[in-house]
Amino acid sequence: MLPGVTFAEASIDTASITVPSVVTQTPPLAVASTPDVILTAFSTGDRLEVAELFNQSSVAVDMGAVTITTIDSVGGRREISLPSGWLLSRHYITFAYDTTLIRGAVPFATSQTATPGNISTLVVSRQQTITQSINIPPMAGNSNPKDNYLWAQHKQRGNVTLKQTGDFATDFVKKTSALVVEGTVLYRPPRDAGGLTVTEIHPNPVDCAPGTASDIDLRCGDYIKVENTSDKSLNLTQYRLRVGSYGDTASLTNAFNWQQSVMTPDDELILNAHDFLTIHLRDDLHPLSLVATGKYVWIEDYFGIVQYGVVQYPDMTLAKYSGLSWGIDSYDHTWKATLPSPTQRNNQLPPEVMIDVPALDTGLVPCGDNQYRSTETNRCRNLIQATVPAPCRDGQYRSEETGRCRSIVATVSSALKPCADDQFRNPETGRCKKIASTDDILQACDDGWERNPETNRCRKIKVTEMPVVPFAVQPIQAISTPWTTWVTIAGIATIALGYGLWEWRQEIGSVVQRVRLTLRHRR
């Protein structure tokens, strides 16, 4: 229950509302749907007198984004705005033109004057999108007195899910009795966290030995520490603690109401000014479990509508974060790895008397007085002590870049020597270069050469066209091959064939013999 919220039946003096007859008009929307916010009861005349709305969604809805448009019998349209505020899930709210007639009703944000004709259509929109439309039959002045009615109620009112079709006879039932509606106040979340701040996150505790000592030492488990940084007491029931990331649905494992198994906004849980609270249990009183590899932690209002102070912690499983938590440094107010301190403020030295938890036997030899143990390598390293360098000798100075002593004479002697009178120093190379004389005249380039405008030197002219010869192209007469050439070729081929037959005479003879034998056998 919210502070000041009452869910009481309200009554209205229906006799005081004059409802003349109207002409029905076709609604602009007649599509069956299940809108998040649905009109469940209404009473009209020459203005919208009463409207009851129900939020059947699973989240709160901002009623400032919901409008009701009335269309009268002569075609006039009037848009009625609703006051800004959040209607909680599964809650009803009643708006009325005259709130003195209905107990607990909320006035419309837009004032209404009587319309020229009676209202014949109601259209409900959310964020400028039509979600419901109702064609309203005449409420009075009908030829059949049984058709007259004082108000209308949705037939499915009270069900888990309510649908609309756009047809009055399908969705609504006429009522002639006294108007009965249900209402509540709109919820408005706190503007800020009121000084409530997350100050320490411990998602990766060290292993502790089993026993009673480990059960009561919060350093052996996950925890989140919050602090009231304001100068006045704070009621924690307005807020809740969340972990996870964008898009995560609130559940028992990521939404925490300060270790209270049962808590409502009407309860009171006071955190004094500048005091802190360490949360190590879920709402079901089971141990808190955080993701050690990095997530987000933030504070939000009780219903999770507005978020305050989102904090991101890194991957605490890295070796450099072993045994540490992620918290705000109380000196420079920055987030960094700190020693776990669930029972005291961050970065304070532990008191002399603490919970008796036996130290873990790591087997490491303690480091010396001038050493410390590296969190990355787990080895002892020497502490770096500031040393004052010895002064340089006469004729020397200390270089700001290297920190070493350098000779003044050597530095001066290494300076650049001045250039001669007819020279200047090239700023790019740092060398002396001769100044060109104004009397210097460039010599003309030879034939077939040109001067390069970039280097001022002569270069060959590139030929871009084929040279033209002073005579015409002469045809070449074909020369016929003499007959002696063919005789020579035939003689060479004959000699080669004879040589081949001579070399292969035995093989050829054996083949001939086989052929003869084969022919004889066939005969």
Fold blueprint:
Layout: E1 9-10, E2 37-44, E3 48-55, E4 61-62, E5 66-72, E6 77-81, E7 86-87, E8 92-96, E9 106-107, E10 119-126, E11 129-135, E12 151-154, H1 168-171, E13 172-175, E14 181-182, E15 196-202, H2 212-216, E16 223-228, E17 234-235, E18 239-244, E19 255-256, E20 270-271, E21 276-279, E22 295-301, E23 307-313, E24 325-328, E25 335-338, E26 371-373, E27 380-382, E28 396-398, E29 405-407, H3 408-413, E30 423-425, E31 432-434, E32 449-451, E33 458-460, H4 483-503, H5 505-522
Parallel strand pairs: 8-9
Antiparallel strand pairs: 1-14, 2-3, 2-12, 3-8, 4-7, 5-6, 5-10, 10-11, 12-13, 15-16, 15-24, 16-21, 17-20, 18-19, 18-22, 22-23, 24-25, 26-27, 28-29, 30-31, 32-33
Number of distinct beta strands? 33
Number of helices: 5
Query: What is the radius of gyration computed over CA atoms, rounded to a whole number of angstroms?
Result: 50 Å
Structural class computed from helices and strand pairing: mainly beta
Helical proportion, percent range: 10-25%
Oligomer state equals single chain
Q: Give the overall shape.
A: extended
Distance from N terminus to C terminus (CA atoms, Å) equals 125 Å
In round numbers, the mean pLDDT is: 81
Low-confidence stretches: 1-27, 348-360
Give the biggest sheet.
6 strands, mixed
- Portion in beta strands: 25-35%
